Amino acid sequence: MKYLIAGLGNIGSEYSDTRHNIGFMVLDALAKTSNAVFETNRLCFNVKIKHKGRTIILIKPTTYMNLSGKAIKYWLEKEKIYQEKLLVILDDIALPFGTIRIKPNGSNGGHNGLKSIDEMLGNNNYARMRFGVGNDFSKGRQADYVLSNFTTEEKNQLPACVEQMKSAIINFGLAGIQDTMNRFNGPATFTENS
Fold first, then answer.
1. Model pTM?
2. Is 193 contained in some domain?
3. Are 166 and 29 a contacting pair, CB within 8 Å?
4. Which of 8, 10, 20, 57 is catalytic?
5. What is the SS3 assignment for 166?
6. Helical spans, DSSP H, in 7-104
């Protein structure tokens, strides 16, 4: 069984530690755990990992956020993966920092990455894992905020959040969306045992 996991973000070192790049961060951490190395490929960086008989294809679109759908559509078709085996990882300013919200479908909530995916797929029936990055910005400064780095306190808590999101991705491949929602939705646990 094959799964496509798409982490959203922007390419370029100036974006690597920003809130908007949480999708890239989580997939980098998951690949590292599996000693897998991303390769440059069509419209993305990608790598395949195997886990308990599942093939999990990780992609980080190189199209920039607002064209993410092009890469996702291409790789779904190339790898012949059904849309219900797609999981998209992204940031969400509507959620408090550290909150994980997994859903089987839904609106784009104004997120440019999801808007692009909805457009390219022609629907919004795909799973997404949103990670709360908070909304500590003044009116009209949303773009600056999501493209800024995490605070020192957030950076200290981020590894625990990333660990939980990695576990949620693996669980999605093994047990499906409903079980993953039941187990992982809510605030991340900031302990050594997460």
1. 0.94
2. no
3. yes
4. 20
5. helix
6. 22-33, 68-79
